[in-house]
Amino acid sequence: MSSECTWSILVMFCFILATGAHEGTVCTVRSSKGEEVLLGSNFTFSCIFNKQCSKLIFLNGTQIQYIKKKAMSMEVSVEVVNIKEFSTFSCRCEENPEPCGIDIKPGYPPDIPQNLTCVQKMNSRNVSCIWTTGRGTIIDTTCQLRVHGDLELGYESFMNATGFCHSTFPIKSSEMTQVVVWLSVSNTLGSKTSGPHTINLINIVKPSMPEIINVSCSSRWCNLHTDNHSMNLVEIQYSAVNGISDTFQTNNKSRLNISSLHPDTTYNFQIRRKVNHTAGLWSDWSQPKQKTTKEEAPDKALDVWYLQEQKPPQSKSKCFRIFWKELNISDAKGKIQSYNISVQEQKGKRHSIIVVPPSRNQSICCYNCSVSVSAVNSEGQSPVKIIQLRFPGLVAGLLSHRPLNNHSIALFWPKLDIAGTEYVVHWYPVGNIEGIQWTRVVDTTAHITGLQPQECYQVAVTALRSSGPKMATIKGISSWQSAPEQGPDPKPLGKDTKSLRVTWNEMPQKKRRGCLKKYTVYLMDKLKGDIHKFSVDHPKTQFVISGLSPDQCYNLWVTAWTDAGEGPKGTDLPFCTLSDSERILSLVILAGGVVLLACLILLCICQFSSVHRRGLLPIIPDPANSKCAKTYADDQSEIKFYLDQCDSSVNEEPDNVEVEEVPYPSICTYIKSFSHESSSSDGTQITKITDIMEDYISTHGAISGGEEEDEYEGEERSLDEFKFFPSTHSPFLEPLFLTGGKLTLDVVKIDCSEFLDCT
């Protein structure tokens, strides 16, 4: 051997030694009963170190005390008692972090195999079997199935966590009708065997899972259409959404009929099958198929009740609120689309109302009438429920009650006082009439259920009698109540030197915690510190405190009460009464305000009266359109002839010309002219006519706005004599005089005796 080879061997040996001295092999461990031990047993765990060191032992990472056999011994041990769970034991030197250790698994030995079940799927040559060992062994356990006559040593598997074993083996001959098997299970703690077990193959044949192809339904039955199969027995299972379910068997193969179903109900259908009644196994259930049956017209009348409502002002009719209960699924037989209400009055007048769900109430105003109510779905309407609307007579102080629990009360009333063939008990939360409920009884006792604790209810009992209904009421009852959660917030309405009027809002229903009985108003004198209390019955929310001192400051608060006690106070209301001087000043200011308001009202009345009069002024004709003016303009050579028409005599005192006036209250005649002495010359006559035309007063210039301003300066001077007329230039008014009228002397005659009436 060469020297190179020798050196190589030495190097390898040194490496091996170095590896053997690695920190990982500082110790070895062992258990007196191995790694898998019986659950709850005792054993010894030992650790043998390879060198002297400070020895440490750990259980699941926590250091524990150990037993040292000899002073210089390399071995230490721990006695483990009643082990219950998987545990890890480890050892190491204090100066070396690398440990050595072992995992201890507690468990059980297997029990005798039992409950063997085998299945052979249709058209399959394999048989699958499962069995149990009574309980899970916790530790790894091997299962084995051996078939008689089979050359295989066995078909092995592992037990699962729930204690089941499973094995599959082939059927090697089609002529085999039965097989014989042995079962065995084993682990490190023990083993068990059972057998022989004889299996008849005809009894373990399991058909494949069937399929529902289609479902067709009417309102009362459904037909299931399935895939083709050769099985002679089918089992049908169906269940409704409302919880109704049933199962039955039939020999029909492909079309399965299910009857006695409910209208408008959704069902889930499943089927399974097997070879016959005596042989084979049931197949797995098919996937569920869902179908809803068709609707039918409702066959049950609605439960209807009514309450009185306040009638509209100045109405002779009586007003009621009609309520009805929703039909349950079996009675509705379909989705309710609307409710038909027919009102029949005594005089023969009838009118109909349609109400759409979810609303189930309607207000009706009529006189001596009856109402019929019915529910409508896609197939028709329910029988009509007719109820006569009559105001019940009120009976006081007859009802008594006692709580049964936090959600119900018992109600009692004497029979002799409101005797009737039937009683209707209704109740609803105070302030929420939409939540009304009612029940019909023939006895004088009723149990009201479904109440909410700390809720106040209005309750009444109505006796239905041929002579007319009688009603007894209780203002407020509660199944359970406590003191209110909060107090009202007071507000002042008015005060003077010796009194205060205070009000507060109703508390929210949820804050009341029951039925309110009263309020307490507290008044504290800030100067003296005295507190006075005043009681106010519910539902009053106002109170007047009198006897106060003038110019004095107080603090006020309010609390609410139920039968369970007094609630906390609301917000404080600090205030001071008026002094005598402040009271006189306020009265003066109030009187002045009243006088000022009266003056403003009178001024408005006068203004609108003036506007009204101006709106009635007549249309004033334009004198430029008169026949006389046109004739003068066209032919001055005929002035003398014209004067003969307008003036009966040129040289004589002119006759009065009759003028037809349009009178207007408080306004003088608006046409004015002056009489002139006529001269014997023609020129004098012409001047006279010109003067008459100039003196003919019209408002054309004031109202037309269509002529030049300088043409009507004379008219404006004439209008100065009529300054008592209301101004037509008010910013609040539109022009009131219209233009465009034509005046002829054939229509208007001037009476000179009227000219000076307004001067």
From TrEMBL:
Segments for region (Disordered): 478-497
Chief location of this protein within or outside the cell: membrane
Signal peptide: 1-20
GO MF annotations, alphabetized: cytokine receptor activity
Highest taxon in the source lineage: Eukaryota
Membrane topology category: Single-pass type I membrane protein
SMART domains per UniProt: FN3
Residues of the Fibronectin type-III domain: 206-296, 484-580
Coiled coil: none
Transmembrane portions of the chain: 584-606
GO cellular component, one term: plasma membrane
Alphabetical list of InterPro entries matching this protein: FN3_dom (IPR003961), FN3_sf (IPR036116), Hematopoietin_rcpt_Gp130_CS (IPR003529), Ig-like_fold (IPR013783), Type1_Cytokine_Rcpt_Type2 (IPR052672)
UniProt keyword list: Disulfide bond, Glycoprotein, Membrane, Receptor, Repeat, Signal, Transmembrane, Transmembrane helix
SUPFAM superfamilies from the UniProt entry: Fibronectin type III (SSF49265)
Keyword flag Transmembrane helix: yes
Location in or out of the cell: Membrane
A UniProt-annotated Pfam family: fn3
Family according to the record: Belongs to the type I cytokine receptor family. Type 2 subfamily.
Protein's name according to its UniProt entry: Interleukin-12 receptor subunit beta-2-like isoform X2
